[in-house]
């Protein structure tokens, strides 16, 4: 069984994106020519700003679990490489789950550095003003420098919704941008439409519903939803014979697990996946539920199950 993050390739990045927009607005007021970025250590512990800055005016490290906890870094305590957008620090970052909030003046025309991407331009999804941006006209991608450069008269941060999505060789999904929360359903539909058209992926739209009560979810999807409290919640929409099928998924970080619920029974998983995974299914009030995670997370998953039954 694939890890939860690879089962939902853009979900992790999607959640970070939404949180980043909110944090960026909350840190403090800033001049109009200064742009904010929220980032953090990648899988190798390296921090990239992604946006290319001419110079950096502020770096604040925020506790990802308690946003009120933060530390302002002195200018001499970090260094910045505008060629790669890499930030290095004189001392280890505070907090177990740090969010690095960076502000500075962006280079013109605006550029973004894709550190871990080795694919072709056609494998990048660039969205601008609620649609797919036109490669070669609104932006160009240079595979040698890993830079996306927007046309000089375009300003993605200021001109409206923009979003860039890509996958690395290990299949992990990455995304960054500044997409309004009220338009996130449109973002999800555009992402999955692009994946279907360019990669042949089945139409499968995942919509963020974190913070929405089970009562409101039940009203939206038309069936009873009763799930333990978790970290992130999504609607999953698929199409079969021109009929839409909807399920609700809730993600639990501590168990690296997902509980999904819908109105039809779940198909049995393969014997190979069964050896590598831990799954449990049950039915309540006409709704079918399934918990899924990797086998090594069994203890945490069973603890989660104890809050269900």
Determine the number of helices (DSSP H or I, runs of at least 4 residues): 7
Largest sheet properties: 6 strands, antiparallel
The helix content is: 10-25%
Q: What global shape is seen?
A: globular
Write down the overall mean pLDDT. 83
Structural class category = alpha+beta
What pattern of helices and strands is seen along the backbone? HHEEEEEEEEEEEHEEHEHEEEHEEH
Q: What is the rounded Rg?
A: 21 Å
Counting DSSP E segments of at least 2 residues, the number of strands comes to 19
Percent range for β-strand residues:
35-45%
Major sheet: arrangement of strands: 14-15-16-17-19-18
Distance between the termini: 24 Å
Low-confidence stretches: 1-26
């Amino acid at each position: 069984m694939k890890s939860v993050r690879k089962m939902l390739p853009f979900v992790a990045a999607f959640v970070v994106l939404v949180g980043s927009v909110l944090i960026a607005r909350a840190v403090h007021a800033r001049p109009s020519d200064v742009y904010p970025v929220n980032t953090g250590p990648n899988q190798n512990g390296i921090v990239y700003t992604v946006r290319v800055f001419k110079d950096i005016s502020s770096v604040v490290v925020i506790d990802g679990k308690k946003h009120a906890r933060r530390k302002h870094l002195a200018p001499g305590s970090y260094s910045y490489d505008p060629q790669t957008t890499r930030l290095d620090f004189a001392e280890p970052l505070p907090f177990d789950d740090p969010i690095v909030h960076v502000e500075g003046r962006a280079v013109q025309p605006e550029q973004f550095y894709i550190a871990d991407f080795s694919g072709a331009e056609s494998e990048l999804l660039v969205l601008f003003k609620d649609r797919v941006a036109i490669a070669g006209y609104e932006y160009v991608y240079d595979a040698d420098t890993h830079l996306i450069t927007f046309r000089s008269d375009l300003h993605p941060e200021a001109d409206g919704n923009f979003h860039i999505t890509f996958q690395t060789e290990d299949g992990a999904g990455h995304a960054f941008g500044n997409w309004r929360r009220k338009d996130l359903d449109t973002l999800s539909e555009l992402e999955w439409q692009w994946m279907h058209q360019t990669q042949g992926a089945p139409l499968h739209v995942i919509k963020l519903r974190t913070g929405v009560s089970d009562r409101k979810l039940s009203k939206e999807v038309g069936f009873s939803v009763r799930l333990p409290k978790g970290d992130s919640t999504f609607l999953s929409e698929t199409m079969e014979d021109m009929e839409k099928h909807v399920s609700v998924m809730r993600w639990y970080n501590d168990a690296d697990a997902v509980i999904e619920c819908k109105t039809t029974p779940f198909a049995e998983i393969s014997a190979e996946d069964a050896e590598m995974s831990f799954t449990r299914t049950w039915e309540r009030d006409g709704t079918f539920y399934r918990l899924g995670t990797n086998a090594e997370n069994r203890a945490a998953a069973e603890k989660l199950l104890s809050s269900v039954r």
